[in-house]
Write a structure and sequence with these properties.
This protein is an all-alpha fold. It has 13 helices and two strands. A hairpin with an 8-residue loop joins strand 1 and strand 2. Helix 1 crosses helix 4 and helix 2 packs antiparallel against helix 9. It starts with a strand and ends in a 10-residue tail after the last helix.
């Protein structure tokens, strides 16, 4: 037994370690959605998000420095760091945090992971990246899935579906931040980039939390506290390491398909941990969104090869 899996066609075998890392990433990021809801049941959004960003940023940079690596960012790259960080950190954490107050964690996970779909129109406008039929088909499927969730939430609330729309704002912001990242030839590691973005782009959240939440803040009970610790360590520190290792070990197609399990885990773990209801709307939307994310990859066999 060599510890590798040989794909069809005699191409270079894929490392079994990569599949284990991918399974861990999917589980940790998926379970994070009901954990977010647990934390927000007792902590204000601003305080929770600010605390997680501050601690995660410090831990990431401290670990990087402990390995003897520089934390310096070239002066010319601070501006793109702040621009991409505004979308990936500030807008994402505020929009999804407040959005989860008004929708279930499972629905939030499905909507959030439509992010790759919104890079299609944004990439076309900003980068001139003309989409083909695969991306347009994916965008149509994903939009249909969102329509199912937003319409059902509007019916349930009898008003504007505030929660899904806020999470959707976060997903679009994440897409904008991703496109902004692609425009730059970064001279720093992704660890340094993420660490500084957490700290610097979290400043508005830190300040707002100190002003808005100071009089109402109380120490959380056990499970919300566990959720805070989980959110600091798992989604940021551990999952970023896993993600970059997976991208290094696997072709793009394999890595992308692997992340399709994250909204699935988010949906079912929300039902298991929080007792959130599952019905035809959730399953229909999940199927449409997963199909949308899968179309551009599964229709390109070369994306599953080492050269893809």
């Amino acid at each position: 037994m060599t510890g590798t899996v040989s794909p069809p066609g005699g191409s270079e075998p894929l490392p079994r370690r990569g599949f284990l890392l991918l399974a861990a990433l999917t589980l940790l990021w998926g379970v994070n959605w009901p954990m977010l809801k647990l934390a927000l049941s007792e902590l204000p959004v601003l305080t929770f998000r600010g605390l997680c960003l501050l601690c995660a940023g410090l831990i990431i940079l401290a670990l990087h420095r402990a390995l003897g690596r520089s934390l310096r960012v070239p002066r010319r790259q601070w501006r793109p760091l702040l621009v991409s960080g505004f979308f990936n950190i500030t807008l994402w954490h505020l929009a999804t945090g407040f959005g989860l107050l008004y929708t279930t964690s499972g629905r939030g996970a499905i909507i959030a992971y439509t992010m790759p779909l919104w890079t299609v129109p944004i990439g076309y406008v900003v980068l001139g990246d003309r989409p083909g039929w695969r991306r347009l088909s994916a965008l149509a499927l994903g939009t249909a899935g969102l329509g199912v969730l937003i319409a059902s939430d509007a019916h349930a609330l009898g008003a504007a579906p505030l929660g899904p729309l806020l999470v959707l704002t976060g997903a679009v912001g994440w897409a904008c931040g991703t496109v902004a990242l692609k425009r730059v030839d970064w001279q720093v590691s992704m660890w340094v980039l993420v660490g500084w973005q957490c700290l610097v782009c979290g400043v508005p959240i830190f300040i707002a939390a100190a002003v808005v939440d100071a009089d109402s803040l109380q120490f959380p009970s056990l499970w919300p506290l566990v959720s805070v610790i989980y959110n600091i360590l798992a989604p940021f520190v551990i999952c970023y390491y896993l993600y970059y290792e997976i991208v290094r070990l696997f072709p793009t197609g394999v890595a992308t398909i692997g992340t399709l399990g994250i909204p699935m885990i988010g949906l079912f773990s929300g039902a298991l941990i929080l007792g959130e209801p599952l019905g035809w709307t959730e399953f229909t939307a999940l199927g449409l969104v997963v199909a949308a994310l899968a179309v551009p990859v599964v229709t390109r066999p070369e994306s599953f090869s080492r050269g893809g």
